[in-house]
Amino acid sequence: MTASVTVSVPAKVNVQLAVGPLRPDGFHDLANVFLAVGLHDRVTVRPADELRVTCTGPDASQVPLDATNLAARAALALAARYGREANVHLHIDKDIPVAGGMAGGSADGAGALLACDALWGTGASREELLEICAELGSDVPFSLVGGAALGRGRGELLTPLDVRGAFHWVFAVADGGLSTPAVYAECDRLREGTEVPAPEPSEALLQALRDGDAGALAAAVGNDLQSAAVSLRPSLAATLAAGTQAGALAAMVSGSGPTTAFLVSGEAEAEKVADALRTSGTCRAVRVASGPVPGATVLARR
Length: 302
Ligand SMILES: C[C@](O)(CO)[C@H](O)COP(=O)(O)OP(=O)(O)OC[C@H]1O[C@@H](n2ccc(N)nc2=O)[C@H](O)[C@@H]1O
Ligand SMILES: Nc1ncnc2c1ncn2[C@@H]1O[C@H](COP(=O)(O)OP(=O)(O)OP(=O)(O)O)[C@@H](O)[C@H]1O
Prior knowledge:
Helix content is 35%, strand content 29%. It is of the alpha+beta class.
């Protein structure tokens, strides 16, 4: 019998986030180009008397440990589908910034789903797992799949993308989080009275990914939520400026923020930009990571 399963799941950065008009269901259609980057949470699941969640890591105190935790919701969703109890202890070893626009909660949801599937021997198909992921949240399917992908619909309909080599990033973690619904609502407010076009992926950006061309990618990146995130958190403008001044090829808000992402040309440049951001006094912490990296992966089965 399997006593525990540990899954590793990456964070994401959105290299393009084109946001369409508000839909009647409260979501927005997207052209969402995801890249999985090498910052990981680890989710370990083991049998228990009842569903329980624990979390360790620098941001652990900000993570809910009740049934709203996406890892708990994933375990409950899989258990319900297979007519069993979700009596497991889920432990999250958290390295992805919380409420930072890097899909940390989504990563834990995808990780818990894969871990429970392995622990219980459910044998759910990839399609079934992706269906459950989409029910849990718009970013969760990508956390399962990883690599690079174009997300359409609300971001859950994924097409894998070809990427040559790796892109290097520096992430500046801000104090406190931003609520994703609040950032989308601010985006709607800022665009009120304007005609919002249907979101389309940038051909130049997809080509830059295929070519592994960081300079071309830098010229093509874009995030329609950036002005909304900066409007809600004006101090992000100083962080973006500090990274640009330090030589980043591109500076952008990661997803709904408030983490900011800086594309750089290589590892040496990443260290230079990271040092400048650390001493700039404009952020709480700085992380360096590259991508694409694989999605949720079983690390250990005991
Ligand atoms: C900003 C991104 O991280 C970019 O990848 C995602 O779009 C957010 O994905 P997520 O955190 O998984 O979001 P969900 O849990 O699905 O939705 C939370 C809330 O965000 C808003 N939301 C989310 C996705 C989307 N395409 N349109 C939206 O308007 C809605 O208000 C929704 O109620
Ligand atoms: N396992 C989890 N880890 C972190 N936050 C979680 C988790 N489960 C639920 N949450 C809740 O979700 C909120 C958003 O956290 P999360 O780290 O997923 O944000 P995010 O990275 O901005 O997400 P996204 O990029 O998908 O919009 C948190 O404030 C927290 O209340």
